[in-house]
Design a protein that fits this description.
single chain; alpha/beta; 274 residues; binds 8-iodo-guanine
């Protein structure tokens, strides 16, 4: 097992992302991609519906990518050709902040996507819902986020504007496909434990509607790289204390499995419209 180059603190993460993009071009035979899509839990079936898979590459063949930490997170990178000619890079290999490898490893896939030419980053996740009318299995748009990790992918005095981070333009396009899509503010907790009911009440009090363990740090890095961001959460469970029953990872997986065909079809149609 060779060391991950991102773990060398003197290395330039953008140079490593450039090397990873070169690996992707070589391994897929596709020089540039237009849209990148990170598949979170529950969204795995979307890739097949987006278009024709041109190439599938194990993430371990790409510079800087780590092995997936969690079963159900497929460690592959796919190049897809959509019917309208759009090249979609599908990232099925997310590194979570709670794995403890630091933000550089977390956002490497986003920086790599930008280096392949992608101008739009679609981030999907499975998450808990605070809004009590939401049902497990329901997809919602991310309208904004609150980063509760206390960390950042930005290094040094890198002041980046995050107004309209989750682009209204892209959310509006998504709602032309499904006008019933609700939206909310995503709170990224460090995890890996789920929140206490008191933490969920805090998230609610500060303006949150969705609780999760990914996406916010990735969205920041996407904006730094100049990409437009579209975020989707699959509400797999009501957040702790919102529902009377405790959370179980098995239920989360089950809600995702049931919703998968529906939300995957939605996502494919949205991507076609971007
Ligand atoms: I799936 O309830 C999923 N991921 N933080 N809280 C947090 N992350 C989650 C949850 C949840 N459900």
């Amino acid at each position: 097992m060779t060391a991950n180059p991102l773990d060398d603190p003197t290395a330039d993460p953008f140079e490593i992302a450039r090397a990873a993009a070169d690996d992707i071009a070589r391994e897929t035979g596709v020089d540039r991609h237009d849209i990148a899509l990170t598949l979170g839990s529950g969204w795995g079936k979307a890739a097949e519906l987006v278009g024709e898979t041109v190439a599938t590459v194990p993430a371990t063949a790409i510079t800087g990518f780590s092995k997936p930490a969690l079963e159900g997170h497929v460690g592959t990178i796919r190049s897809i050709l959509a019917p309208n000619g759009t090249r979609v890079l599908v990232i099925g290999a997310r590194t979570h902040y709670y794995e403890g490898h630091g933000p550089r490893r977390v956002v490497h896939s986003v920086r790599t996507a930008a280096a392949t030419g992608a101008r739009i980053m679609v981030l999907t996740n499975g998450a808990g819902g605070i809004t009590p009318t939401w049902k497990p299995g329901q997809p919602v748009l991310i309208s904004d986020h609150i980063n509760l990790t206390g960390d950042s992918p930005l290094e040094g005095a890198t002041f980046i504007d995050l107004t309209d981070l989750y682009a209204r333009r892209l959310r509006d396009i998504a709602r032309t496909i499904d006008p019933t899509l609700d939206e909310g503010v995503y709170c990224q907790f460090r995890g890996p434990q789920y929140e206490t009911p008191a933490e969920v009440q805090m998230a609610k009090a500060i303006g949150g509607h969705i609780v999760g363990m990914s996406t916010a740090l990735e969205a920041i890095a996407a904006r730094q790289a100049g990409m437009e961001v579209l975020g989707f959460s699959l509400i797999t469970n009501l957040a702790a204390g919102i529902s009377p029953t405790p959370l179980s990872h098995a239920e989360v997986i089950e809600a995702g499995r049931e919703a998968e065909p529906v939300i995957s079809a939605l996502l494919a149609r949205v991507i076609e419209a971007l």
